[in-house]
Structures are given as C-alpha cells and as structure tokens.
Queue: 4 jobs
Job 1
Amino acid sequence: MDKKTMNEIPALLQERVDLKALTARVFVNSIEGLKNGKIKDVSIDPNTEILFFTHFGVVSGSLYNPPDDEFDPVYSLHEVILKARDSLLSSYIEDGVKRMVNDKSFVLLKDVTIKPYANNDNSYKLAYFVLYSDAILGLSFGNQPKDQHVNVAE
C-alpha cells in the first residue's frame, strides 16, 4: 500500500486519517528504532515485543515492512487484494456512494502471536496478520516470558 500513488487510492480513503492506526505505527516504529539502535545513547532489549491489547486477546508481533529490493509474495498478494478493493470502491463512488462504514485503517504485522483472553494456553502463531485499528484498545511493549499469561480477572 505504501507504494501506491495517491491517484490509485479512492478519495474516500485519501481524505481521512485514522489516529489510532497512526499512533500504533508511530509507537511500533519508535520501539523498533530503539531495538535496532537507531536512537543514540538509548537502547532496549532486542527481544522486546510490541503488545496490542484488543477485545479478543493480546496480539504481539512486529510491524510488517515489505522489502524494497526483492519480491515478497505475501506483500504482493496483499497489494492485489487492496487494488481489487480500491477498484470496487471506486465503482461504488461513481455510483454515488458518499460514505463508508467500517472504514478503519489497519496495521500489518509479521511473526504474530495471538493469546485469546478466553484461553491463554491456546495461542495462535501466524506469519502475517492484518490488525484493524478498531480492534486495538491499547499498546504496550516488553519482554514476556513465553509461559507468562495475562490474567484479565482474578
């Protein structure tokens, strides 16, 4: 999506900013910068994870940034899906649609673990995940031991 020109993105999507998704991206990029030593005289454990607290559980992972210099089949598939969505949305706009519903932005993640609140022992490991911003309740970071669980109610 970052590689698209603004002409390819329908106006309904261009004329809005999702503050929650923007905040999440800035937060994740800041933590990643600390982990990679990009900020002088400040460091953080390289195993630090970004934690997204959602309605369904805790999602941890890294921000997905596709490589510029090589073919990435996962990102290519994502781009094809978004182009099809944008094309369909453009046809709806031509037919007079002026407002979208459920138009939240998303954060692309890789190396994802989802720990549902209902059963922390049954976590899901995914190579790639699209987290819609309306599912994000909060953000945190830290180095969680793999056997540590988040207790919602005691």
Note: The domain at 6-142 is CATH 2.30.30.100 (SH3 type barrels.).
Job 2
Amino acid sequence: MTTARLACLRYACAVSHTLEIEGRRAPRLKGLRVPTRGGWSEGSRAMFGPGWPSEHSSVDDTLTRFLERVRGLSSVLTQTEQRLLLRPDELCGDTLPVEAVRRFLERHGVAHGLRPGHEVFRTEVRGEALNRPPVSGPRAGRICCPSGVAPGRPGRPHTAGRGRGPDGDHHHAPARW
C-alpha cells in the first residue's frame, strides 16, 4: 500500500472529522479512491470488509466469509472479493477514530454488503455450489453444470436474466447469486 496515498486519505478523513465536530458540513471528494484487497479503488465500487464496527457489521462479516469461501468459482466473485475494504487497523492509523473513518467512507460511497450491479456472463457456477462449496474430496472446486446451460433450463444459455422486455427490446437484469 502506498504510504503517501494512505497519508493523504487519512488527512482528508481528519479534516472531515474536524469539520463534523465543529458542526460544519464536510465536503464530498469526487472520485475518492480507497484501499481494498485488490489495491486502490473508487469508493463508489468498494464494500466494507470485516472488522468495521457499525449496525451493519454482521452483513460485512458474512459477505467476507461468503466471498472467501467461493473464491475462484467465478471471476466475477473473485473480482468482488478484491473490492473489499482493508481492515480498520490497516486503514485508520493511531490518531483517527474508527467510527469517524467509517462515516467518512460511507459518505464517499463505500457500501455495506453486495453492491447491486449489472453482470452478463456465462458460467458453470450453480447456486448450490455457492451455498455449499465443496471443501475437500474429488469434487472439491468442481461445478457440475454443462457449459452455457442454465440449471433447470435445458438448452438455454445462462446470461443472468438477459432477454426481451415487454417492449420487445433486449434488456439485462442484475445477476443474482
């Protein structure tokens, strides 16, 4: 992690926190980048990982456990895991309260839980594999679904909700895991 970049983020957070204490409104920084497992990412694409105290911490912890268990089953899931924010002890330093950093990050678009998104992809991953990924044995890491065929819909490609809308035009629904 770039220490100069992290120092700048901490400084922006400290200024925001000071303004909050004084009862003033802190500005929102356009395009703020935050440190995630995959490197620096826009706050509007990042999600809280484990260890962030809030009323949503159980959601953050559950999401982290899920993404760690299904790592490698799909490139979309792997990329999603890479957008998890670093732990508070790695990000906050010694001088900033964790709650102040969390509020700052929330104001800049970091989300609790999965971000709704539009993904059109072909995969062999089935819902049952996501709910109960094999841990060991000959089927560990294998998904049993013929390439390009949606479970329960023989001969139809799995495109996460792609089809024709009521007006006859193509539309795409968000992928559901």
Note: The helical segments are 3-21, 57-69, 75-81, 88-91, 98-107, 127-131.
Job 3
Amino acid sequence: MSKPTSYTKDQLYGATKGVKRTYINKATKNEADARISKVQAYKLIAHKLKLSSDRSLWKNNDSEYLSTWYDKLIKDIDDILLNNQSIISSNSKDTLDTNQKSNYLEIISALEKRVENLTIENFELRQKLLTK
C-alpha cells in the first residue's frame, strides 16, 4: 500500500485544472510553448500542491489519474493547435482583389526606391567622411 499523500483529492483536481487551463489558453493563443511534457506538467502540479518533489506524483495512488489527465490534456492541446492551423491555412488561401494587389505593389516599389535612395545617400556621406 502506498504512503498517504499530503494533499487531498480536491487540491489535486484544483492543481490539474489550473495547469490545464493555462496550457489550453496558450494553445488557443497559438503560443510557441503551448505543448508541455509530462515531466513539466507533474512539476507544475507538485509546485501548486507545495510538494518538495514531483516524485511522489509518479508513485502514489493518483498516478493513474494523472496519467489519463495528461493524455487528455495533450489530446485537447493538439486538437486546438490543429484547429488553429486549419483556420490560418484557410485565411491564407483567401485571394486578394486586384485593387489590394496593385496597392501592395505600389507600396513595395515605393519602399524599394526609398531604400535605393538611402543607400546612395549613405554611400555619399561615408565618402565625405573618409575624404576629411
């Protein structure tokens, strides 16, 4: 039989809900660190439960609950990230109308001219500085 835990089931459920909420929100916002490893998740839960180490989470009666909780978390995060990717790809397939294309082309050509003028100006100023 396992050693009794220093936390209640309600505290464990609260800690796992908090971690899940954090990472679901990160996935919804499409943040780069939305995925979490099992070790990271257990360390966060242990910290929320004020445990000195996450080792006890791996070896007590709650390990089965935590394992299934983690699997569901990863599945939910993957679903959200996949959904975000499909939304992004469908938005990128939208075609620009001809006015938008011509406006973008005008802006690009104006910026290219400006860069060219600044490059020439920079070169001339360097020449003046070197000749002094």
Note: The mean pLDDT is 84.
Job 4
Amino acid sequence: MVLVVLPLNTILNALRIGGERVDWRRMGLEALNRALHDLGVFALRHIGGRWERAGHLQVSQDNARTRRFGPRRAQITVEEYSLRRDGLRPLAPQDRLVYLEGYEGEVFPVEVVEDPSNTLLPHGPPFN
C-alpha cells in the first residue's frame, strides 16, 4: 500500500459541505471557517517538516501578498518569507492563507501545508 500525502490546496479544492461542492476561495469567510471548524480536528504538517500540529483548520482574510509581519521598518510578506525561509514560492499567492485555530498569528499559503494522516482524503468528512 502506498500512502499519498496530499497538499492542502488539493484537498480544499475538492471540499464539499452538505453534499455540495464549495469554492473555498470565494465563499464567505465566516461561513467557511464555521464549516471547516465543524469538520473537526485533523493533523496538518508544513511540507518543509518545520512543524506538525492538530487542530481546526481556518482560513484568513489575508493572502500571501497582503499579510506582512516583522519589525516595522523591515516587514516582509508571507510570500517573501516563504521563498526566503523554505525556497517555496506560492503558486497562487492571491489565495487566502490558512492557519489552525488558536494559532492565528501563524498563517501559511495552502501550498506549504499537507495532511500527513490523510484525515481529509475522499473517504473523510469534507467529501460527503
């Protein structure tokens, strides 16, 4: 048996809520985050192996180009940080960032997060 670990953007692109496919990129933020919270707790891992955590997935209003952090005079975007730190350029920097509930300050482009336990594969809850 081969275990395939899917990047989070692949999983979110196939997301279904109430049996209907939803476009997570355009869905209202409050409704999307409530629906994602209702799916329950699952494991996520940074593809660079920097962290692995379990929690409720949430989506930020910011994207990789609009979210800035760091000292006031040296702030960088999440897109710049991802490229410098991990050598990863988001394929869709205009997509909203994701985080785990309780870690709102740690947001990531969906391309750098994966589901190592395959809790979100097609047999799992988001694909009813």
Note: The first helix runs from residue 8 to 13.
